[in-house]
Every structure is written in structure tokens, then in C-alpha cells.
Design a protein that fits this description.
91 residues, 27% helix, alpha+beta, globular, Gcn5-rel_NAT, Acyl_CoA_acyltransferase, 5-stranded mixed beta sheet, 36% strand, N-acetyltransferase, 2 helices, Aminopeptidase
Length: 91
């Protein structure tokens, strides 16, 4: 199992100085974040880590009352698959 930790502009799995997986965003104004990349190491691929990172980011956005613009192709694919994420998707 893996533990998702919060960073300044994202969430990650691993240690601060050795992230094994990460989703990163850039703030855009007061109520929007832009997801610019999601990275998962080869050792964690196929275990649902990327999906869990996107889900954690969605939970974060709901708590903060902000919208997400998923420029990262992986994050975009998760938003396309999960209609329940539409409440935080910037339209």
C-alpha cells in the first residue's frame, strides 16, 4: 500500500527528496489550479497510484472550493472516465 502526501503544489508518494509518484499543479487565480503533470515510477505502475493521486487532488479541490484544469493527458483521461469529478472540472 502507498501513502499519499501533500506538497506545496501537488501530492506525491515516496519521500520529499525521492518521489516515486507525483501529481503537480500550478495555481491560476484564486479559484483554479492547472494540473501540468502526473508521474509514476516504473516500480509503482499498474497499481492504481496515478488514479489515486488524481482522486486525492479532486478531494482537495472540493475542500478548497476550487476548479481544476487538467492539461496533463493522464489527469484529463481520468476526468473523462469519472463523471463524478465534473463538479471540480473547469468548463
Amino acid at each position: 500500500m502507498f501513502k499519499i502526501k501533500e506538497d506545496t503544489n501537488g501530492f506525491y508518494v515516496g519521500e520529499q527528496d525521492h518521489k516515486e509518484a507525483e501529481i503537480h499543479y500550478v495555481p491560476s487565480g484564486n479559484d483554479t489550479i492547472i494540473v501540468d503533470h502526473t508521474i509514476v515510477s516504473d516500480s509503482l505502475r499498474g497499481q492504481g497510484v496515478g488514479e489515486a493521486l488524481v482522486k486525492r487532488l479532486v478531494e482537495f479541490a472540493r475542500t478548497k472550493g476550487i476548479k481544476i484544469m487538467p492539461l496533463c493527458p493522464f489527469a484529463k483521461s481520468q476526468f473523462d472516465r469519472h463523471e463524478d469529478y465534473s463538479d471540480v472540472l473547469l468548463k
